[in-house]
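for the writeup, i need someone to sanity check this before i put it in the appendix. the sequnce is what the collaborator sent (i think, or maybe the updated version? ugh). structure was predicted straight from it, no edits. if anything looks off just tell me and ill rerun, i have time this weekend
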Amino acid sequence: MKFKAAEIAKLLNGSVKGDENAEIWTLSKIEEGAEGSISFLANPKYEEYIYTTKSSVVIVNKSFVPSQPIQANLIIVDDAYHAFTILLNHYNTIKNNKTGIEEFARISETAQVGESVYVGSFSYLASNVKLGNNVKIYPNCTIGENVVIGDNTVIHSGSQVYEGCEIGANCIIHSNVVIGSDGFGFAPKADGTYDKIPQIGNVIIEDDVEIGSGSTIDRATMGSTIIRKGAKLDNQIQIAHNVQVGENTVIASQTGIAGSTKIGRNCMIGGQVGIVGHIKIGDFVQIQAQSGVNSDVKDGQQLYGSPAINAVDFRKSYVHFRKFPAIVKRIDQLEKENKQK
């Protein structure tokens, strides 16, 4: 699909300097631009490329003052980076605007499907599933009984949503995510074996949540595992039964959260963090990558290390830790001198 520079400028609330009828049909980095592509310049260290780029159109800030002639047409906006993000989202919406039920999809007679829905081949919608409007279910997905999915949510190929789970509006579930598998619950017996504890709860994912590929979110033993509105989860994250993740909290890859832990809103959790079960983490907490958290955390804390402590204290301690070899050597020398006296 082709667009004119003037149409893009209107979308971005910008103005065109150059040919308003210049046609665009793809996007590119400014250093990799080609005819028909649109790029952006936000970071001054890439300025050199705007004078040589082959892109037909470049989005620039109003504050940008060129030092050489520019061949490309310009779209001038308040914030080039934000404008390009808007353009990417618009492009992605158009690209993924599929509708209809593909030939090998199977939908239960009792499922309720909204308008402009897409269901890809070999996907299965079980009994009493409810899909809102403009939901996209890509191929090879299984949507279990009584699942509810809100408007505009996208579920990518290979994902599984177990029975009774709820997903809100405007969510993005990437490939091979499993939502609602059993929590890890087993009761030890006297003979050393285990009885499985039935997991009869569900998972609730509120609006505007994004979940990365290969992540797993376990259903609650009773009640619900809950991912609150606006949370963003990276790839390969494990969230155990009855966990609650607060609004707008972001969690990086390979983090694991054990059962019944509650995480507050607007937290930032780095990659490969381990969090034990049955603790409470406050709002606006920041946890550095590879930390291990084993106790409650107050609002606004910054943690580092395993077991995790205040990040400032950790860095101070690390300075001393690096000096340990020299300290030990000095102690050994003092002991040797003391024995010689």
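Residues 324-340 form the longest helix (17 residues). The mean pLDDT is 93.
thx in advance!!
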